[in-house]
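Lecture 7 notes: from sequence to structure.
We start with the chain below.
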Amino acid sequence: MTDPLPPDFLALAELRGRITLPHPVTGAPVLHVWQKTTPALANNASEQHPRLQLRIEPGGRKGNTLKQQRMRAAMTTANADWHALSAAEKQAWNKDSKRYGGRMNGYTLFIRNALRGHP
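Predicted structure tokens for the same chain:
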């Protein structure tokens, strides 16, 4: 793998943070981040700098499909409904969540049921 930066950049003692470089195909500016590498990880380092790799930062815009908008609205409603519960009702949900072996708390169980359409 070739480094996208010239060797003089890689000679810096500390490489941290983010850097904007042109995309190799489109030429559009793309945000890159430094990631530490180790032999135990499956990520590949360069020959010039064996402990760091420069990779394109994941991200992008949130999808805004109709299905995602509906899910976000349902999550917002379910969260508001949880906060509207009394302390005793929340405690009942927490108690009911124990049947899942500690993998879930009352809030998670409530939200899951609300999103699945169960009261």
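Points to note: Residues 98 and 104 are 7 Å apart (CA to CA). Residues 66-116 form one domain.
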